[in-house]
């Protein structure tokens, strides 16, 4: 029996790890739990506008929609060049921006490419920092090969002109939260990889003058209301007849500003109705302000998996302790499962509060999923363990009466009613499981009588000719016999005659009512032993 139990346990363990492995691949599912809880508990929505740095300025430069693709690209790049020239002119008036972040990627099209390069170099030669995002279209199309992704890019700009080189803006927004990786790695044809840093990470490191590059992180930032950012948004236009410089509307003093440039009309995320450049603005703002609106979650996968395994094991331990020491719940695996989950959840919350004191947030999605898998498998294991008849019961019932309903009138008069009058040594009446009295209308009949047997001290089967031919009676007798073999229950059989006893149970000593009409006295003596 121990071997069978161990084998079954091994199967459940393997099932747990397989299901957990599958859960790891369902990142969009459990990470949504993380984002929802994070947004509800850890973001100070009231502080969005008051915590928006006045160093943030967003400039809208729209790409014209002309019939000719080349004409549209030329006008768009002319506007960017004019913007850079305008910033250069403001520089001459001692208006020095902190940095310029172009939320615009540049393809290898030669249209105005040289003029664009010269405009950027004019600023960088004056120690102005000009960053630009690098297109990762091939990467997000599941083709993470650097050479193929890089082939269509304006490499002359990224290699030697833009500050920080190739930078990514892999922002993902969900409700009022932005997540983004500190780094994305593209494979090369030489079996190594190229690191593409987040533009926010690079700008922040340069702002702090840090030469130490932190390890990979999955960063988070608040996504504030669009109305707050619109107050610090400016349009840039080129006056008719002049392509060298332009103007801001409303007027913008660029001194000491981080200027983020994007096409707010066309680079727009429809599902949350927000320009994607605002993602970058809010992410940068979180790095600039002293009063942070979010705490960074722990995102090390090894820690997340370790946390998940620990609390999944913890829930099994709690279930086992409850099963062992609370006898009244031994035959209620569902109740035990719910209690084990609640207790483990309380400890999980306490653990989260402890980590919070160190200014970190624990991710909950995968761990909760692991705990749910663990508690369901533990409940199922306990259920199977109970129905095999080898689990210790709660000894809730002194006697379980098993019989065929064709003999119910005789059983009630000659067995049940006499047993009701019996008294235990302490003077109390016997607690009897008798289906007519113990199983209510609408209750699960099979489960109820099986749990009743497990919770009983003595099993009294009344064996008639039809008894063992009835499925429920057969189930009851077989389960009781298994428990008697394990010395978990005592069987006192009553038979209408020797011929009624099933062949497989003729080795058990039974009371033949044709031979011993005072069989209830014998039962009384047996119960008092």
TrEMBL record:
Q: Where is the TIR domain?
A: 395-527
- Write down the SMART domains for this protein, in alphabetical order: TIR
InterPro entries assigned to the protein according to its UniProt record, in alphabetical order: CHASE2, TIR_dom, Toll_tir_struct_dom_sf
Q: Which residues cross the membrane?
A: 301-323, 335-355, 361-379
Biological processes per GO annotation: signal transduction
Question: What Gene3D superfamilies does the annotation carry?
Answer: Toll/interleukin-1 receptor homology (TIR) domain (3.40.50.10140)
Which domain of life does the protein's organism represent?
Answer: Bacteria
Name of the protein in question: CHASE2 domain-containing protein
Q: Which residues form a coiled coil?
A: none
Alphabetically ordered keywords of this record: Membrane, Transmembrane, Transmembrane helix
Q: Which organism is it from?
A: Algoriphagus antarcticus
């Amino acid at each position: 029996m121990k071997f069978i139990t161990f084998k079954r346990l091994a199967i459940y363990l393997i099932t747990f790890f397989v299901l957990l492995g599958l859960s790891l691949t369902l990142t969009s599912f459990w990470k949504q739990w993380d984002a929802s809880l994070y947004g509800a508990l850890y973001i100070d929505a009231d502080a969005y506008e008051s915590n928006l740095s006045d160093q943030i300025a967003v400039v809208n430069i729209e790409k014209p929609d002309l019939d000719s693709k080349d004409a549209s690209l030329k006008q768009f790049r002319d506007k960017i060049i004019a913007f850079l020239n305008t910033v250069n002119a403001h520089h001459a008036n001692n208006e020095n921006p902190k940095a310029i972040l172009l939320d615009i990627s540049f393809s290898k099209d030669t249209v105005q490419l040289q003029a664009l390069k010269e405009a950027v170099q004019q600023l960088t030669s004056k120690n102005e920092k000009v960053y630009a995002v690098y297109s990762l279209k091939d990467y997000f199309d599941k083709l993470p090969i650097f050479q193929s992704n890089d082939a269509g890019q304006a490499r002359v700009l990224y290699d030697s002109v833009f500050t920080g080189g190739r930078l990514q803006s892999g922002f993902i927004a969900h409700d009022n939260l932005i997540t983004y990786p500190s780094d994305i790695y593209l494979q090369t044809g030489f079996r190594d990889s190229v690191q593409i840093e987040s533009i926010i990470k690079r700008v922040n490191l340069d702002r702090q003058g840090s030469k130490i590059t932190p390890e990979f992180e999955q960063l988070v930032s608040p996504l504030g209301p669009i109305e707050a950012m619109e107050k610090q948004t400016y349009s840039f236009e080129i006056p008719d007849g002049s392509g060298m410089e332009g103007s801001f509307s409303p007027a913008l003093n660029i001194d000491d500003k981080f200027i983020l440039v994007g096409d707010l009309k066309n680079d727009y995320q429809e599902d949350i109705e927000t320009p994607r450049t605002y993602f970058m603005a809010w992410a940068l703002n979180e790095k600039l302000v002293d009063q942070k609106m979010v705490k960074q979650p722990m995102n090390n996968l090894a820690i997340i998996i370790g946390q998940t395994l620990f609390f999944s094991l913890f829930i099994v331990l709690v279930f086992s302790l409850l099963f062992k020491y609370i006898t009244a719940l031994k035959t209620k695996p569902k109740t035990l499962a719910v209690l084990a989950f609640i207790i483990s959840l309380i400890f999980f919350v306490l653990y989260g509060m402890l980590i919070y004191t160190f200014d970190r947030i624990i991710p909950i999605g995968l761990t909760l999923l692991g705990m749910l898998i663990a508690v369901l498998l533990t409940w199922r294991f306990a259920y199977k363990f109970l129905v095999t008849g080898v689990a210790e019961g709660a000894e809730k019932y002194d006697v379980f009466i098993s019989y065929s309903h064709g003999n119910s009138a005789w059983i009630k008069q000659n067995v049940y009613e006499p047993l009701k009058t019996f008294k235990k040594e302490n003077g109390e009446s016997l607690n009897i499981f008798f289906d007519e009295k113990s199983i209510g209308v609408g209750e699960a009949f099979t489960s109820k009588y099986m749990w009743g047997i497990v919770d009983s001290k003595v099993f009294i089967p009344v064996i008639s000719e039809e008894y063992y031919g009835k499925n429920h009676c057969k189930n009851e007798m077989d389960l009781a016999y298994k428990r008697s073999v394990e010395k978990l229950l005592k069987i006192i059989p009553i038979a209408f005659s020797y011929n009624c006893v099933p062949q497989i149970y003729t080795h058990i000593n039974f009371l033949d009512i044709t031979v011993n009409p005072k069989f209830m006295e014998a039962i009384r003596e047996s119960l008092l032993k």
